[in-house]
Design goal:
The protein has 158 residues and is mostly helical. It is built from 5 helices and no strands. It has a domain of 106 residues: Four Helix Bundle (Hemerythrin (Met), subunit A) (Up-down Bundle), CATH 1.20.120.340.
Length: 158
């Protein structure tokens, strides 16, 4: 019997990965952060699905993916050096909020509690929505004169 050298699902997955990599490489810093928010929220949605279907390993993998995106993407992008005391305090608060979201995700995994996934998802959506509102490419967006251009720093990351 003939077996193709790759399965169609593997080919589709590779195509999707290349598409995502291309989008990330051509995206502005603001768009990259937006993509990270979307990826974390998708991972939480998948964790909720796997939790409901009692797919323990897949649930754990999805939660780990969300935590990884938050820690190594969103939190790592916070620029703690930008601005003055107010900006430094804001950066510390956003960083602490990311830590709290990750804690909720860990507890959701340990306790198999969808309410904790919902809480993490809501908090992430709040930050994500604020981030989208300050998109410098958004029609009608006018930066305050005292704010440095978005191309200078990835200011705060969230």
């Amino acid at each position: 019997m003939y077996t193709p050298p790759y399965s169609y699902s593997t080919g589709a997955s590779a195509y999707a990965t290349i598409g995502l990599q291309s989008a990330a490489m051509s995206a502005s810093p603001h768009q990259v952060i937006t993509m990270l928010f979307d990826g974390a929220k998708t991972a939480i949605t998948m964790a909720r699905h796997h939790m409901a279907n009692k797919e323990i390993v897949a649930k754990g993998n999805a939660i780990s993916k969300a935590i990884n995106i938050i820690d190594n993407g969103l939190k790592a992008s916070i620029d703690t050096e930008a601005g003055g005391a107010a900006e430094t305090a804001l950066a510390a608060n956003v960083s602490a909020l990311y830590d709290y979201i990750n804690q909720r995700l860990l507890y959701a995994n340990l306790r198999n509690d969808p309410a904790l996934l919902d809480e993490a998802d809501r908090l992430l959506e709040d930050i994500s929505s604020a981030w989208r509102d300050i998109d410098p490419h958004k029609p009608g967006y006018a930066a305050k004169p005292s704010v440095a251009p978005a191309t200078t720093h990835l200011s705060l990351g969230a």
